[in-house]
Design a protein that fits this description.
Blueprint (H helix, E strand, L loop, with lengths): L1 E6 L7 H8 L5 E8 L6 E9 L2 H11 L3 E2 L2 E2 L1 E4 L40
Length: 117
Amino acid sequence: MKNLFVGNLPFGATEDALRDLFSPFGEVQQVRIMTDRDTGKSRGFAFVEMAQDDDAAKAIAALNGKDLNGRALTINEARPRPERSGGFRPGGGGYGGKRRGSGNNYRGARSPREPRW
């Protein structure tokens, strides 16, 4: 089973249209058009899962660069999503790198600098 990335997708494309486009090359397991979380509109790319690796390779060779409703499709093997860290961000936790609170009650506090003249 091979997952394919389909980029530069026309915003009006449907899952059925993609299934019809890929089905001549082999069995299509699943089609997912990625949508915006807030608006529900297409984000311009999709993932097509094909049953056989060699069928996926044929689809890539035949369809990469093919025009669909005035847009040249970009089709290649989907890569796994990069790992994202969970929550903690260096630099103060989203407060612009400055510590919250008053005074010097944390380690690493510096005394105010003397003016340089």
